[in-house]
Design brief:
The protein has two helices and eight strands, in the order H-H-E-E-E-E-E-E-E-E. With 165 residues, it is an alpha+beta fold.
């Protein structure tokens, strides 16, 4: 008797299932249902200005001499602003930091190491900043931040090189 009651309950519950075309479909492992964020497309005139600014930036950063520890560059305005790069200092001591920017009056780059106060480099884009800093053994990070997060997209760029003197 219990078997018959169980069969009736199972059949009754199965008939209560509800499906709709609006229900989300199962996805493959690792897929997300959210669309990836998109960065607006740069206008052709901004791309041209930015390319010229990168050429000038690379000329300015070429003044850095010595074996390279870290180098990076990136946009200094617009929605895809900034860069973040890390490296490992294998020998503590003095290193030369060279930074520059083009297409904006100034840029701010931060250097950070575990256990040390972050170093803010305020870069005047009319020239090249070059400074000797003492670095500890271990990881170091460099990050470009933006002074004006709502400013116009003009093709400005900034970069850094850290070298062993």
């Amino acid at each position: 008797m219990a078997f018959i009651i169980g069969m009736l309950l199972t059949g009754g519950l199965a008939s209560c299932a509800y499906e709709s075309d609006g229900d989300p479909r199962p996805t493959a492992v690792g897929q997300s249902q959210r669309p990836a964020p998109s960065v607006p497309t740069k206008a052709p005139e901004i791309i041209d200005v930015e390319a010229g600014n990168y050429d000038e930036l690379h000329r300015r950063l070429a003044t850095a001499q010595g074996p390279l520890l870290l180098a990076d560059d990136g946009p200094a305005d617009g929605p895809g602003v900034g860069f973040r790069k890390s490296a490992t200092v294998t020998t503590a001591g003095p290193y030369t930091v060279t930074a520059a920017c083009v297409g904006t009056p100034s840029a701010q780059i931060f250097l950070s190491q575990d256990g040390a106060e972050p170093l803010s480099l305020d870069v005047d884009c009319s020239g090249v900043l070059s400074r000797v800093v003492l670095l500890r053994k271990g990881p170091i990070g460099a990050q470009l931040t933006r002074h004006d997060p709502t400013g116009a997209w003009r093709g400005a760029v900034a970069g850094i090189k850290i070298t062993v003197p």
